Amino acid sequence: MSSLAANKKVIKRRSPTPKKVQAKGEGSNSRRECDSVDENSLPMRRARELQANLSPQFPSLVKFMLHSHTASGFWLGLPKDFCASHLPNHNAAIILVDENGKEMETRYLVERHGLSGGWRGFSVEHNLIAGDVLVFQLIEPFKLKVYIVRANDSTNIECAISLLNLSHSAQPIASEGLLQEGDDN
């Protein structure tokens, strides 16, 4: 056996098989795979396009929402480089401003590079779900404008509703005469 073939066997034996991770609080029968960022998803592409059209004068970042950001934990980690370059070097209140101008206060924790207190309220208030993508733009030293790109795009929903409306024109089938005397079904 050649040394190359022997090395391949060793590598194959060492390679762990992907495992499903049990989500916190779920029973042993209820399992799901770990959340992962889909860089090629339509919302992610739209968010990157939106970010490209923002003024370069104000720094921005794109954040893909995972289940843990929206339905449990309610913690939002931000890129370390962005935090070090643009956010305070101490714990502070950070204001999030939505697309309608509504402001919500969150707590920025410098050592964790993310938002904690207040993030849950923002997430719930804006009905964020896993797969949504947020674009954060620093508009003032302690204020981030937040643009939400939905995983369930409204144009897709409108198309689905249109398809449902097609069934509205269908006529009911008359049931008289379908069952003959003595039929059980």
Helical fraction: 25-40%
Q: What proportion strand?
A: 15-25%
By secondary-structure content and strand pairing, the structural class works out as alpha+beta
Strand segment tally: 7
Which overall shape is indicated by the principal axes computed on the Cα atoms? Answer: globular
Arithmetic mean of pLDDT: 75
Straight-line N-to-C gap: 70 Å
Radius of gyration: 25 Å
**SSE string, helices as H and strands as E:** HHEHEHEEEHEEH
Give the spatial strand order of the biggest sheet. 1-6-7-3-4-5-2
Q: Please outline the major beta sheet.
A: 7 strands, mixed
Number of helices: 6
Poorly predicted residue ranges: 3-34, 156-161, 167-175
What does this protein look like?
With 185 residues, the chain is an alpha+beta fold. It is built from 6 helices and 7 strands. It has helices at residues 3-14, 42-52, 67-70, 80-86, 119-125, 154-166; strands spanning 60-64, 76-77, 92-97, 103-109, 114-115, 133-140, 143-149. The chain has a 7-stranded mixed sheet with strand order 1-6-7-3-4-5-2. The protein is globular, with a radius of gyration of 25 Å.
Key terms for this structure?
6 helices, seven-stranded mixed β-sheet, 185 residues, alpha+beta, globular, 7 strands
Q: Can I get a quick summary?
A:
The chain is of the alpha+beta class and 185 residues long.
Write the layout of secondary structure elements.
Elements: H1 3-14, H2 42-52, E1 60-64, H3 67-70, E2 76-77, H4 80-86, E3 92-97, E4 103-109, E5 114-115, H5 119-125, E6 133-140, E7 143-149, H6 154-166
Parallel strand pairs: 3-7
Antiparallel strand pairs: 1-6, 2-5, 3-4, 4-5, 6-7
